Amino acid sequence: MKKIILILFLMACSNSGGHWQHYRISALDEARERDMAIILHVYAEADEISQKQKKILEKIIKDSRFKAVGAYRVQFGVEKEIDVGFQVRKPGTVLVFQGKSELGRSTSLDESDLQKLLLKVAKN
């Protein structure tokens, strides 16, 4: 039953571009195992850069090219698997994956820089 729920959750993630998905390490791991394209925004509520990035990223992921991309947000310092496993050193980090391969990361506030990074997953 748990596997069915997780699969349905992941199917929803892959078909609902333009929206942040509920983050769970198991969902992220499953998406990576299935070779899905993933955007992961590591943020902090009090971090000004994180809040500006969120607005920019929300605008970008509404683009139809990102329809099949899972977009996740996770709070910095809460999920040690993310901070340690992906070597995230500070909030305001955007990571882009195609399955288990990291295509790039950014701490930029420049919309064109973030869009170039995210287009790497749209092309795959």
Concise overview:
The protein has 124 residues and is of the alpha/beta class. It contains 5 helices and 5 strands.
CATH superfamily: Glutaredoxin
The whole-number mean of residue pLDDT values reads 80
First-residue to last-residue Cα separation: 31 Å
Tell me about the largest β-sheet: 5 strands, mixed
CATH class: Alpha Beta
| Uncertain ranges | 1-16
**So, CATH architecture?**
3-Layer(aba) Sandwich
Radius of gyration: 13 Å
Beta-strand segment tally:
5
User: How much strand content do the residues show?
Assistant: 15-25%
Number of helices: 5
Please explain how this structure is put together.
The chain is of the alpha/beta class. The chain has one domain (2-123): 3-Layer(aba) Sandwich (Glutaredoxin). 44% of the residues lie in helices and 22% in strands. It contains five helices and five strands. Strand 2, helix 3 (48-61) and strand 3 form a beta-alpha-beta unit. Helix 3 packs across helix 5. Mean pLDDT is 80; it is low at 1-16.
Question: Features of this protein?
Answer:
disordered N terminus, 124 residues, Glutaredoxin
What's the helix and strand layout?
Layout: H1 2-14, E1 20-21, H2 25-33, E2 37-43, H3 48-61, E3 70-75, H4 80-85, E4 93-98, E5 101-106, H5 111-123
Parallel strand pairs: 1-3, 2-3
Antiparallel strand pairs: 2-4, 4-5
Helix pairs in contact: 1-2, 3-5
